[in-house]
Amino acid sequence: MTIVAVGLHIYDLTGSTLAVALVALFALVPMIVFGLYGGVLADAFDRRIVALVTAIVAWTSTAGIAVFAWLDVQVVWPLYVLTTINAVASVVIGATRQAITPRLLPTRLLPAASALGGISMGVMVTVGPALAGLLVATVGISWTYTIDVVLFTAAFLGIFTLPRIVPEGERQSAGLESVLFGLRFLKTAPNLRMTFVLDIIAMTFGQPRALFPAVGALLIGGGPVTVGILTAAGAVGTLLSSVFSGRLGHVRWQGRAVGRAIMVYGACILGFGIVLAVVAFGGFTGTGQNIADANLPALIAAAVLLAGSGAADNVSSIFRVTILQASAPDVMRGRLQGIFTVVVTGGPRLGDLYIGVLALTGALWFPPLLGGLIIIVLVATIVRVQGSFRRYDALAPTP
């Protein structure tokens, strides 16, 4: 809710799309840095305390945004500062929470926990923006922030009920050497390293979101409504695959499952590119910014394929998170979750760069078509070569 409301707030103050985009740009480097350092904190101190303190920081930053809105401050830099603080606190909470989960559950339930995370994410990125838009339109930006501040207090209830969770094993001081130690450990953990490599491949070559505005304006038609449908489709796929993910907990060869899920993801992105190519070469281009003038069959096909990509990516994520949580030593889990956060944060940005460069050809269908092929070929080859990952056994997890 707050992310969407901040974008609307800044646009209302400036009338600039660039000013809105700067929210993500300013937060990117701090998120990467504190994604790593947050993992160090989770491995050095009581994880309950780390989660509680960072939740308080996140809540305070959201409350600060609400105060600025109520005071009707007509400058944007406080919003940049507070949203960056909120983003940094969120990544630290995320790394800490993921390191806590394996201490609360037996290994056999970790896939179910990851699936619940997928449900949470799916609801967040579908219901949250819609609710924010509705609230801003009806009660205003200030009340939208305030409602989110009240809802945020629920986060404290779960953290307060946790027991003391001190990392098991030899702890290191929370400094740079601890970060470097985590990176050195990853060199000796081929299965964990593979989960990161495969995710980077998928996110670099299979993130067509930067194309959606042009697709809605120039190819399928339908303007902003088409962009909204294509954007939401992936989240819908994530949500549905999590809801029906019960059988994933019985999968034993999880390394193979990761490889196959990412290849299905690549196939869906390839299919999306084919749909765009058919529209472009067949002369079926939609016209205008009205959804009634769009190429509806192409829009439906594209949305279904993007939903499939979201579902496959979520299945891959469930197994990748499970492999990390089950095989990593407890005293290393925070740092490895921090690296995971960096990969998840940076991968889509590389994907946007890949799409942007290839889109200069003027062929909107080319980046997803080529990207899907690259994903399928690279993942199939790497999984084939890396035999230990292909043989990863959930009953005997090894990093």
Automatic annotation (TrEMBL):
List, for all copies, the residue spans of the domain called Major facilitator superfamily (MFS) profile: 147-399
Any GO MF annotation of the entry: transmembrane transporter activity
Q: Which InterPro entries match?
A: MFS_dom (IPR020846), MFS_trans_sf (IPR036259), TM_effector (IPR010290)
Q: Which CDD domains match?
A: MFS_MefA_like (cd06173)
Q: Which UniProt keywords apply?
A: Cell membrane, Membrane, Transmembrane, Transmembrane helix, Transport
Determine if Nucleotide-binding is one of this entry's keywords: no
Do the record's keywords include Transcription?
Answer: no
Bilayer-spanning residue ranges: 18-37, 49-71, 77-97, 109-137, 143-162, 194-212, 218-241, 262-284, 296-315, 336-357, 363-383
- Mostly located where? membrane
GO terms for cellular component: plasma membrane
Record's subcellular location: Cell inner membrane
According to Swiss-Prot or TrEMBL, what is its membrane topology? Multi-pass membrane protein
Protein name, per record: MFS transporter
**What does the organism's lineage look like at the top?**
Bacteria, Bacillati, Actinomycetota, Actinomycetes, Micrococcales
